[in-house]
Design brief:
This protein has 194 residues and is an alpha+beta fold. The chain has 4 helices and 10 strands, in the order βαββαββαβαββββ.
């Protein structure tokens, strides 16, 4: 079991992302695509952690979310990590709300370090939804031009909670389940997407 902190997306937005990736999927057979029901905005990957650590992560989640007001995020455009020319990760980007997501990520990192005993990831946060991962370690250069062409918007989500998720692998792929939910309760709602 692996765990992570994420913003879950509504069905309509996941369907829009899945439809946007359809063209890309046809041209990239060497990419493992994320199933539509598993699409989400990852805020922090935790990896394999024991039950005691998960308890502290729940405390950190509550501490970080109580000081954060709900905000909107709009998703749009496709890209790739580490470079668009040979992407190993294909993603949908954040058009509006990226700054609020970065602030929430920073609060989570601080709370995880203080209460959860987890070190910060040590790399810059880049808000995105992972759509697929190249099976070839050299990436998927055949997607470079296509990713740059896909700039349209996919929809928006009101970020009102962060979920502690569990990911289990089975023969049909990853199965995600919710372990805990931290409601955003601070300040005034409405920053981000309008």
């Amino acid at each position: 079991m692996r765990s992570f902190l994420a913003v879950l997306l509504p069905d309509a937005l996941r369907a829009a992302l899945d439809a946007a990736a359809a063209d890309v999927r046809q041209r990239a057979p060497r990419v493992a695509w994320v199933r539509a029901e598993n699409l989400h905005l990852t805020l922090r990957f935790l990896g394999s952690v024991d039950e005691a650590t998960l308890g502290r992560v729940r405390e950190a989640l509550d501490a970080a979310t109580e000081a954060t007001a709900p905000f909107g995020v709009t998703l749009g455009g496709l890209g790739g990590f580490p470079t668009p020319r040979a992407p190993r990760v294909i993603w949908a980007g954040v058009v509006t709300g990226a700054e609020a997501l970065a602030e929430l990520h920073a609060r989570l990192e601080g709370a995880l370090a203080q209460r959860g005993g987890l070190r910060p990831e040590g790399r810059p946060f880049h808000a995105h939804v992972t759509l697929g991962r190249a099976r070839d370690p050299r990436g998927a250069p055949e997607l470079a031009e296509l990713l740059g062409e896909r700039r349209g918007g996919f929809g928006e989500v009101m970020v009102a909670a962060v979920h502690l998720m569990r990911s289990d692998l089975d023969p049909s792929g990853a199965r995600h389940s919710v372990l805990a939910r931290g409601e955003l309760r601070g300040g005034t709602a409405g920053r981000g997407a309008r």
